[in-house]
Amino acid sequence: MVVIFEGKGTVDLAGLNDSVAVLKGVGTKRQVALNKLGINTINDLLTYFPRRYDDLSIKDPSSAVDGQKVTVKGLVIAPPMLTYFGRKRSRLVFRLRINDQIYTVSFFNQPWLKREIQPNSELIVFGTYNRARNQIQGMKILNAQTSNAFDSIYPANKEVKQATIKSLVKLAYETYHDQIVDIIPASLRAKYRLESFSDTIRNIHFPESPKAAQRAFRTAKFMEFFLFAMKVQILKAAHRKQDPQAEINYQESVVTKFQENLPFKLTAAQQKVIQEILADLSRPIQMNRLLQGDVGSGKTVVAATAILATISANKQAAIMAPTEILAEQHANNFAKMFAGLPVNIALLTGDTSAAARKAMLPSIQTGEVDLVVGTHALFQADVQYADLGLAVIDEQHRFGVNQRQALRQKGTSTNMLAMTATPIPRTLAITMYGDMDVSVINQLPSGRKPIKTTWITASKTNAAVRFVKKQLDSGNQVYVVTPLIEESEAVDMKNAVAIFERFKAIFEPQYQVGLLHGQMSNQEKDATMLQFKNNQFQVLVATTVIEVGVDVANANTMLIFDADHFGLAQLHQLRGRVGRGATQAYCILIADPTNEIGKERMKAVASSTNGFFLSQKDLELRGQGDITGQKQSGMPDFKVADPVGDLNILTVANQEAQRITAEKHWKTKPENVQLAKYLQFSQTINYD
């Protein structure tokens, strides 16, 4: 979110970048410390919002709930006692009479407060009330002027204290509040009862009541979502400009014959998304589509159809995978699918020899190669395409925006199809992929057996090991997943190295045990995975690097230690590594959750094989920040808004952004002038 300043009747957009150093009291040292908190400009400071508020209005502790933070006023009835223990640690204790009741008040590691505590004087204390002991653990001593208010509590560090942030925010607001311009159009503010932006800033930093802060935060959330949604709509419009060169005039008969000759029948969901993609390709507009498909839903054959359609129009296609072994698997799969068809396939990765690469590049440049399968090597400077009509990105969340764009720019008007098996609920699709059209395969191919998932506690681990032995004796292979590589003193979790040694002791020499983790080089990872695929290892102990991996049809069992330390979507993604063959697949979760939410999460993943349901459940239980075990790549970093908790606001803000940008000359409407200037200044709109 950004504050816009106005001076002398005109918008001074350059003021947006004024350094906090212009404020009195901000020298070089303090400026550096503020920068560490992300406060670089006046804008940053005014939108550096409190994380919570303390109610400093005076209350009677007898009516307080145990553990509640309270502000109390009483009479000091005896001199305070200061005790030192350990190095630089202290405890300050005194007694306070409040309404004929005596309370013990203690302050830890604040010895300087002793001089503020005088017998027979009144004192206002803010702290946590302990009903059982009739005690108050003090946090701060207040004066009469600040006690009847709501105190803003900011994220701070050792270099920048709360008091410093408060005083700087106050100074900035007093200096600039008359110059803050409203970016949100007046009609929207009236329609949704939003505050002016100046009032929003004031009521967030200096609220007179919790309701005032709540109203202000509601406006701030709408504004944050709305400005983001406006940017997304502008990006989307830019992608959808008329571009005749993007049109793929594919041969429908070739596509139909390909589908008829498949050894299986496409599901209704696959047919639906194929039609969406083919419709995109046939338009004179660059396709920018995300294909979401649960583990095993059949995204590859959908991509193959799009690729073949592109090739039938005498254009090239490329598919980029995150690892060399996955790229090789794709090349083999496409070779089988396109057997008997006039499709030339090339595999280009970092492992491609210099001689093979030298021979391959001219064939790609002349168009002799129809489909190029590879890794990051696909967009290297010396790789030139004849006419790249379609770029497919597999496991797109493993690539950065610049990497995806680099491949797309290898063609003149390249269509983009990004694929992901990471289930992302519609709740987040607006924010993560707002500039893309989304297709979803929400149906598994018929005949595929659901993976049987069981949750057990650590005390039953031996029984799980016996089950693993039984599967190995039946000729199957097993994944064993742990959250850590090596033992950590800070976290009591199973680790890959220890489990590897334990399973070697149990199963070798009858069965071979391999180890795979993220600190290995890409070559080592690929070699280990290839050995497992070739059944040189029967048990593979691994961290989450196998989350996206090759198909090992013979692996039918997965054992996951400390399963409660993973996100539900990530657990679902992991167990998708098994069940690739005809044998019944099993996933055993070993976990001892410490709370009810943890138990509910384990029950959810054990009872459902629907990745989209689990992803939504994870959002409800844990929030947006970590739906796959790590922060989602590409997730917008909102300051106050939460795409999950504030979904209604997000939806409305998105609808309004769509409505406004649908008008041809929206930028010139008087009520949109400030909005358009803000978007232009933030480099969202480039006027010709």
TrEMBL record:
Class of the enzyme per the UniProt entry, highest EC level: isomerase
- Presence of the UniProt keyword Lipid metabolism in the record: no
Q: Which PANTHER family would you find in this protein's record?
A: ATP-DEPENDENT DNA HELICASE HOMOLOG RECG, CHLOROPLASTIC (PTHR47964)
Q: Which UniProt keywords apply?
A: ATP-binding, DNA damage, DNA recombination, DNA repair, DNA-binding, Helicase, Hydrolase, Isomerase, Nucleotide-binding
One GO term of the biological process aspect? DNA recombination
> This protein is called what?
ATP-dependent DNA helicase RecG
Q: Which family, according to the similarity comment? A: Belongs to the helicase family. RecG subfamily.
Provenance organism: Lentilactobacillus farraginis DSM 18382 = JCM 14108
Protein role: Plays a critical role in recombination and DNA repair. Helps process Holliday junction intermediates to mature products by catalyzing branch migration. Has replication fork regression activity, unwinds stalled or blocked replication forks to make a HJ that can be resolved. Has a DNA unwinding activity characteristic of a DNA helicase with 3'-5' polarity.
Q: Where do the Helicase ATP-binding domain residues begin and end?
A: 280-441
Signal peptide stretch: none
Task: Name the InterPro entries for this protein.
Answer: ATP-dep_DNA_helicase_RecG, DEAD/DEAH_box_helicase_dom, Helicase_ATP-bd, Helicase_C-like, NA-bd_OB-fold, P-loop_NTPase, RecG/Mfd, RecG_dom3_C
* UniProt-listed Pfam families: DEAD, Helicase_C, RecG_dom3_C, RecG_wedge
Which reaction is the catalytic activity of this chain? Couples ATP hydrolysis with the unwinding of duplex DNA by translocating in the 3'-5' direction; ATP + H2O = ADP + phosphate + H(+)
Q: What are the EC numbers? A: 5.6.2.4
Gene Ontology molecular function, alphabetical: 3'-5' DNA helicase activity; ATP binding; DNA binding; hydrolase activity
